[in-house]
UniProtKB/TrEMBL annotation:
<dbReference type="InterPro" id="IPR001031">
    <property type="entry name" value="Thioesterase"/>
</dbReference>
<dbReference type="InterPro" id="IPR020802">
    <property type="entry name" value="TesA-like"/>
</dbReference>
<dbReference type="InterPro" id="IPR029058">
    <property type="entry name" value="AB_hydrolase_fold"/>
</dbReference>
<dbReference type="Pfam" id="PF00975">
    <property type="entry name" value="Thioesterase"/>
</dbReference>
<comment type="similarity">
    <text>Belongs to the thioesterase family.</text>
</comment>
<dbReference type="GO" id="GO:0016787">
    <property type="term" value="F:hydrolase activity"/>
</dbReference>
<dbReference type="InterPro" id="IPR012223">
    <property type="entry name" value="TEII"/>
</dbReference>
<protein>
    <submittedName>
        <fullName>Alpha/beta fold hydrolase</fullName>
    </submittedName>
</protein>
<feature type="domain" description="Thioesterase TesA-like">
    <location>
        <begin position="24"/>
        <end position="245"/>
    </location>
</feature>
<keyword id="KW-0378">Hydrolase</keyword>
Length: 253
């Protein structure tokens, strides 16, 4: 049974107990909570920035990995549903975009308080189809794909870190690549899409199809760059998030 201890799943690098709004960040495949430490610094104390830490990485590296997107989403939904009520924005990059969407869908269906908006990055819409099998490659092939995304952290040059990270990377790739297309799944919260114009994991057309997955408002903003454009354009991405957070603060607060 999955451990749902919030202390294991949630990281608050810059606690802001008086914040009027919450930002929940979902890491990418193979990623860890520390990727979003700069985002936390940029938005605290104005927002309660909460970052997910998935099992099988960093301080959770000894814990069993989860089987797929749905298993991740079920666990995260349960953890977030227990958080104190606060207007919330979800922000997910790559695999984190799928997880943010699936968790929002579950919360809207009565599992808890849903987010007021969803910001997705570097991921094509849930209804799109691609035959991807990178998770079946050998270790060198898998790492070559990760490094080709121009987002490979320098830690991947450390052989010990690579050896420790590979199981989580492969598991997350498998989770994403075996995610069944869900063209009819819709959330009611607005969806904002951020995308690099040279992202091999999602074309602009594939990203525009996120519009089919919300009954609320939709917008897309493109940036120059590849899959990890958000590192190079951190100030602009943070400005997008700041605007979204401000929009979600209840009037008078």
């Amino acid at each position: 049974m999955t451990d749902l201890d919030p202390g294991k799943w949630l990281r608050r690098y810059h606690p802001a107990p008086a914040a009027p709004v919450r930002l929940v960040c979902f890491p990418h495949a193979g990623g860890s909570a520390s990727f979003y430490r700069p985002v936390s610094a940029a938005h605290s104390p104005g927002a309660d920035v909460v970052v997910l830490q998935y099992p099988g990485r960093q301080d959770r590296h000894r814990e069993p990995l989860l089987g797929g997107i749905d298993e991740y989403a079920e666990a995260i939904t349960a953890v977030l549903a227990a958080e104190p009520e606060l207007p919330t924005v979800f922000f997910g990059h790559s695999m984190g975009a799928l997880l943010g969407f699936e968790v929002a869908h579950r919360l809207e269906r009565g599992a808890g308080r849903p987010p007021r908006s969803l910001v997705v990055s570097g991921r094509r819409a849930p209804g799109t189809v691609r035959d991807e099998r990178v998770h079946l490659l050998d270790d060198e092939g898998l790492l070559a794909d990760v490094r080709a995304l121009n987002g490979a952290e320098s830690a991947l040059d450390d052989e010990d870190v690579v050896r420790m990270s590979l199981p989580a990377i492969r598991n997350d790739y498998r989770a994403v690549e075996t995610y069944p297309p869900r063209p009819d799944r819709v959330v009611s919260c607005p969806i904002s899409v951020l995308i690099g114009d040279d992202d091999p994991k999602s074309t602009v057309d594939e990203s525009l199809r996120w519009k089919e997955h919300t009954s609320g408002a939709f917008r897309l903003r493109g940036f120059r760059g590849g899959h990890f454009y958000l590192v190079e354009h951190a100030p602009q991405v943070n400005a997008e998030l700041a605007a979204e957070l401000t929009l979600r603060i209840p009037p008078g607060e």
